[in-house]
Amino acid sequence: MASMFARLFTVTPKFHSPLKPSNFRHSTPPPFLIFPRTTKFRCAKTSITVIRAISSSNVDVVTKTSAIKPGRAVESDSLPSDVRKRAMAAINSSGRRVTTGDVASKTGLNLHEAQKALQALATDTSACLEVSDDGDVLYVFPEDYRLKLAAKSFWIRTEPFLEKGKMATGYLVRASFGTALIASIFLVYATIIAIALYSETDDSGGGSFCDSLTNVYFRPDSLFRYPRQQVMEGNGEMSFIESIFSFVFGDGDPNHGTEEERWKLIGQYIALHGGVVTAEELAPYLDVDTKNMDDDSYILPVLLRFNGQPEIDEEGNILYLFPSLQRTASPQRSGLKEYVRWADRAEGVDKFFKENKWQFSKTNFSARAMVIGLGGFNLLGIVILGTMLNMTAKPDGFISFVSNIFPLLQIYAASFFVIPLIRWLFIQNMNAKIIKRNRAREQCAKALDSPNLSLIRKFLNARDMAQKTFISQDKIVYSTDKDLYEQGYETQEWDRRFEKIESCD
C-alpha cells in the first residue's frame, strides 16, 4: 500500500488525542488545502467528513514522472502541447472555474494528466484554488490567464511559428519527392539521347555535345520549372507534385486524433449520466467482442482512465461508478434520472465510435493515372539506360555523372512501385479489421435501441444511483485569494466535528 505523503489529521479507531483545528490557529494554511480528498466516518446517527491528503496510490502527482516541482521557470512547458491545449479549451468552456473531473470529462484526459495540467497552468497563471466543505479542489483562472501564460513562456509564444515551419517542411518533403521523379526522367532520357549521339560521333565531338548538354539542360531552374506551374492548381486540391508523394507513401493515418475524440465522448457520456453507467452503454464506444458480451473486461480501460469502480445494485447487476466525474464546478443539468431510448438520448452525438478506413491515396483518378504513367515511363527509361551503359566503353562528362548515380535512379524507380504495393496489402488488412470493429460497435448501439426488460431495469437502477453535485460558491470553505483568517469557516466548527467523531468511539 502506498504511504500518505502528507496528512493533517490522523484518524484511528480510538480517538484518544485528536489534533483539533484550534491547535493550528496561528499556523500557515494546512497542506490538505492543496491535494484534498474526503473520508467519511459514520456512527449510529452521525456522518462526519474529514479532509485528508491524497495517497500516492490514487492520484499522486508528486511522485510521478515529470512531476510538478517548485522552482521551475514555466511549469506548463513540461506539458505535452496537445494536453495543454485540450485542458485550456476545457477551462474556457467551463467558465474558467473547474475541477479535475470537469477537465477529464470534457477532454478525455485521464485524471492524472488532467490534474497535472491544471496544477501547471494554475502555477504559471496565478490562478487561485478553492476548497469545498467536502474537500473538493477547484481551480479558478483569471480572465487573462492565456495572456499571462504566453508572456511567461517563450516556448508557447514561438509554438505557432514552429507549427507553420513544420507544415512548410512537410510540404517541401512531399514536393521534393515529386520533383525527383521529374528530375529522374530528365536525367534518364537525356542520357539515353547523349549515348545515342555519342556513339555516332568521334571522341571530340562527343565531348563537345556532352558539355553543351550539361550547360543547356542540366540546370536547377529547369528541374523546378514544371513543379512550380503545378503547385496550386484547382480549388485548394492537392497539386500534381504532392500527388506523386501521396501515391507512393499515402496521406497518413486517417484516424489521427480520433482516439482522443473517443475518450472525450466517453467522458462526456459518463458525466452527463451522473457518473453511473452500465457496460452496455459504453460498449458502442469501445473495442468489443460481440461473441462474448457477457464479459465486461472491455470496460477496464475506462475504469483505469477515469478512476471508476464497480457497484452492485439491489438486483445483482454490475454498475460502474465514477466519483470524480460526479462533482463539477460548472452549473449544468444533472444526470438523467429516467430511462430514455438510446436513439433519443444520443441525438446530436455519434451513437457509436466509428473508425475511418485507410485510403490508398486522396488523389483523383486522373492525377493518379498520370503519376502511374510517369512512373512507368521512368522505369522503362531505367531499363533501357542500364542496357546502354553496359554497352558504353568509357563514358565521360555528363554520361559519367549519370553512370555514377545510376544505382540511386534504379532504387528510386523500383521503390516507386514496390512501396505502394506493400502499402496496398497493408491497407487491405487494416481496413478488414476496422470494418469488423465498426460493425461490432454498431451492433452494440442497435441493441440499445430495443433493449429487453432486464436491460431496461439495469438502466433505471443506474439512473437512480446517478448524481451530479454542483460545487457552488456557498460550499467553499477556503480560497487562496483571501487571507486564512478571513475565511468563513470557523475553527469552532472543526472542533464540533471532531467532538462528534469522538462520540462515535
UniProtKB/TrEMBL annotation:
Keyword entries, A-Z: Membrane, Transmembrane, Transmembrane helix
Protein's UniProt keywords contain Lipid biosynthesis: no
Domain of life of the source: Eukaryota
Keyword Transmembrane helix: yes
Coiled coil residues, start to end: none
Transmembrane segments: 177-198, 369-389, 409-427
Protein's UniProt name: Iron-sulfur cluster biosynthesis family protein
Originating species: Penstemon davidsonii
